[in-house]
Structure prediction request, 392 residues.
Amino acid sequence: MFDILRQNLSAHGPIAPEDLDRFTAVCKVVNVKRKKQVLSEGNIPNFLIFVHSGLIRMYTTDKNMNEHTFDFGSEGTWFGDIKSFRFKQPTDTNIEAIEDSQLLVIAHEDLKQLYATVPGLERVGRINAEDKYIQLLDRLKKINHSNYSAEERYQEFLKFHGDIAFRIPNTYIASYLGIATETLSRIRKNMLHNNQ
Amino acid sequence: MFDILRQNLSAHGPIAPEDLDRFTAVCKVVNVKRKKQVLSEGNIPNFLIFVHSGLIRMYTTDKNMNEHTFDFGSEGTWFGDIKSFRFKQPTDTNIEAIEDSQLLVIAHEDLKQLYATVPGLERVGRINAEDKYIQLLDRLKKINHSNYSAEERYQEFLKFHGDIAFRIPNTYIASYLGIATETLSRIRKNMLHNNQ
DNA sequence: AGAGACTCTTGATTTATATCAACAAATCCC
DNA sequence: GGGATTTGTTGATATAAATCAAGAGTCTCT
Prediction:
């Protein structure tokens, strides 16, 4: 059950097995069904999520009730609204399962405690945070900071997330790319034509 | 000279004074004139930057030679292309001074060494990285992930960066917002009209 | 102080994509 | 297996912002 998490924690330098045990001991296993909400805006999340299996997404809603997807999390990734988690503020983001998923959930106090006492854990945290930043910047560069047409953005998305693209409904992909569902539909049609 | 940096490093838990000394000892002070390039795309940056004074920006260029500004760095912030720094890859980003600036520059090997030997430093690194991620996500939410009109994006920018907005030429602000300089010019004219 | 380099403004025109609307296809799950 | 829900498609129209072009301000640096 905790093998993927243990691997994640050990990826950037050894962590003592007994410390890994202490870590996993405070993680709660949460099973969520597809479409089910894991975090809703307005709440103060006391937890971070490690996706053990399945697929989840993070989104906000604007005044017109349009959804804007910011991130997808598949097996082996950390997920959560770090901002409201760290500062104990009400969040503006929703987290929702796209597929039935198994999540490992760790509470603020437990994580804090572990950071303070497990040698090497801060390093994993730093590198994971840096990776998240790098990914987000790449995404901003290639997808949201335009002079890229809607079609180019979609192609960049496929290049980056080709592995999970087929598991994600097109509406969510469109909302991730910042384009209308209809536009994405037309683009895909176009790409089919041009590739045959 | 190193007071602002020492403060930054000590912001999330005490670091021994002699460790702070070791840190600052390996930092090079670099003075850059306005408009001067600090990092150019194609190079492999061996350094991260701490802005001691002044103002710098980070941008990429697309195939049409249009610039896209991704971040501004003012006094007291860390700056650099972490991705190519970490993975020793050629960078796609340029860093340029907007004002005459004093930068503190630390090399990869030195930082690595310090991370390995200074208690508490990994924590500062983690929190700084998390902060960078939080800022970038906020920016993506409020500015680049649309359903925000160009004018709304500009107003969000002013809300967030009002302190440095007046020090940045409008062309760069436009390129940060992902809109044309002309559009920003029209928006500002509009806002003047509507506020009197 | 003045030439040259930036930076900003304004107008006219074009264009990519959003929006609205309605239907078709796929999928879920009882 | 079949009704219900969710997701995807297609067409017509509207619109915000890009682009092109040219001129006016404003800095800046010797």
About this structure: Residues 149-150, 179-180, 182-183, 186 of chain B lie near DNA strand D (CB under 10 Å from a C1').
